[in-house]
Amino acid sequence: MTREKTLVLFDFDGTITFKDSLPGFLQYMVGKPKYYKGLFFQSPVLMAYTLNLVSNHVAKEKFIGYFFKTWDVKRFKKLATHYSLQVMPKLINPDAMNRINQHQKQGHHVVIVSATLECYLKPWCEENNIALIGTRLDSCNELLSGEFATKNCY
Question: How far apart are alpha carbons 36 and 13 in whole angstroms?
Fold first, then answer.
């Protein structure tokens, strides 16, 4: 008789972390001046989202695309991995990590399901033996396209 494995799903931002990780990731990747410039220039789409005139997917894709369209994929992945393994652990809530560890010790299959960009969450998940379903960025000819390869996992 096969034993069924328990599936445990977690959100990431605000559940495993103390706060939303995206602003810190963007500031790390592009610097604070470019981040705030991006907020200013993308404020119309952010306002349209706030007023329910555009979907979360559209708003987030345009916002992320503003910062990363035409970035070299290898450079992007290298920086995103560094952020994931060196910076992001400071955002992790120890109580949430303890819950994850308890589930893993019981043999449960732990999965993070998150709108967080997979590119910077995946290395941390791999290091902690956690499966991931997240939002993926699209690329073409080794450059980021500025679009999502998946629906925003919102």
Answer: 21
Rounded CA separation 9/6 (Å):
10
Report whether 45 contacts 59 (CB < 8 A). Answer: yes
* H helix count then E strand count, the chain: 7, 5
Mean pLDDT for back-to-back runs of 10 residues, the chain (154 residues) = 82 94 96 97 96 94 96 97 96 97 96 94 97 95 94 80
The pTM for the full model equals: 0.91
CA distances from 19 to 7, 14, 22, 101, 114 (A): 25, 5, 9, 20, 14
Residue with tokens 């910077």: 120
Which residues, in sequence order, are CB contacts of 44 under 8 Å at separation 6+? none
